[in-house]
Amino acid sequence: MLPLEVLQRAGAEITNYQGSGMSVMEMSHRSKVFLKIFEDTQACFRKLFQVPDNYKILFLQGGASGQFSMVPLNLISKTGKADYAVTGNFSNIAYKEAQKYGQISLAASSADKNHTYIPTQDQLKLDPEASYFYYCANNTIYGTEWQYVPDTGDVPIVCDMSSDILSRPVDVSKYGIIFAGAQKNMAPAGLTVAIVREDLAGHELPYTPLMMNYKTMIDKDSMYNTPPCWCIYMLGLVLEWLEGQGGVPGMEAIKHGKASMLYDVIDNSRLFTCAVEKDSRSDMNVVFRTGSDELDAKFVKESTAAGFTNLKGHRSVGGMRASIYNAMPVEGVEKLCDFIKAFDKNN
């Protein structure tokens, strides 16, 4: 979901961006008009996310899934080893992909309880010789979210923040690399933002593909080839909207309020339960179910008829899932809460 104001602004500029006579979709990425869009968006992101000067902000393609390969290709060479925490579907895919490039250890896994919790610091089995430690901040399918930054000593942390980036303040200096697909909180699908500490680039494995080399992308400021221009423009509009919400701290208050409202209704209902441990619950993806597949199917069918979309849970876990990313207005969550209450009463 994108903010309505952003869609309206993009629509108004779709055929003639600020008197240029062109749509942003038509511009050369080397043109002065687009370079200003690019530079302004990059600067605004650095300001809003408080990215230190020794980190580069890259606008890439390939989604977070591309980073599953790009991270080990660029970082594993230091010791040939890395630690991964597997707390859901996508961190598990990343863990398996990394095994192609080095000795990958499972620092923690929540699979023993069907990924309904986030491991605590004392449950992490960390190797001080690891080239990096990897985790996924928010697990969209299972509805869990890390509420702390792991302490890994001198080992750089790599974090996939695809589904909760810009929803809460982050101390970027605690990380080596942060990356995120744009399609949850930032822009349409097609853009991946990577925040890379400069000293970690330039140590890639010798067979690293040209377009998956952080150093290449840093040296060319994300423009070795044509970047996803339209998505970068849309990111810039979303960042302007985010400033109007009070920046990242303001958005954190809004998103936590929405999530708390929804969890309260579920916890106080007769029919519905949330399997996720309370201190591991996601503010972005709220999973819930009735305990009856038949009732779950009825809820999804009736909610769809009432105008709600995409509430059916992922096929691997079933039940329901409400994704309440940054652009979801409070009113939308209020309406869902009312629907849950009515369903709970009538069934």
Shape summary: globular
**Would you count the extended β strands for me?**
11
CATH topology of the largest domain: Aspartate Aminotransferase, domain 2
Major sheet: size, sense and barrel closure?
7 strands, mixed
Binding site for pyridoxal 5'-phosphate: 64-65, 90, 140, 160, 183, 225-226
Pathway: Amino-acid biosynthesis; L-serine biosynthesis; L-serine from 3-phospho-D-glycerate: step 2/3
Subcellular location: Cytoplasm
GO molecular function, one term: pyridoxal phosphate binding
Task: Please give the structural blueprint.
Elements lengths: L3 H9 L19 H17 L6 E6 L2 H13 L5 E6 L2 H10 L4 E7 L23 E4 L1 E2 L4 E2 L11 E4 L16 E5 L10 E6 L16 H6 L9 H16 L2 H21 L17 E4 L4 H13 L14 E4 L6 H17 L1
Parallel strand pairs: 2-3, 2-4, 4-7, 7-8
Antiparallel strand pairs: 1-9, 5-6, 8-9, 10-11
Helix pairs in contact: 1-6, 2-6, 3-4, 6-7, 7-9
Protein architecture, described:
The chain is an alpha/beta fold. It folds into two domains: 4-245, Aspartate Aminotransferase, domain 2, CATH 3.40.640.10; 248-346, Aspartate Aminotransferase, domain 1. Helix content is 35%, strand content 14%. It has helices spanning 4-12, 32-48, 63-75, 89-98, 214-219, 229-244, 247-267, 293-305, 330-346; strands at 55-60, 81-86, 103-109, 133-136, 138-139, 144-145, 157-160, 177-181, 192-197, 285-288, 320-323. The protein has a seven-stranded mixed beta sheet, with helices on both faces. α2 (32-48) packs across α6 (229-244). The chain starts with a helix and ends with a helix. The model has no long low-confidence stretch (mean pLDDT 97). Homodimer.
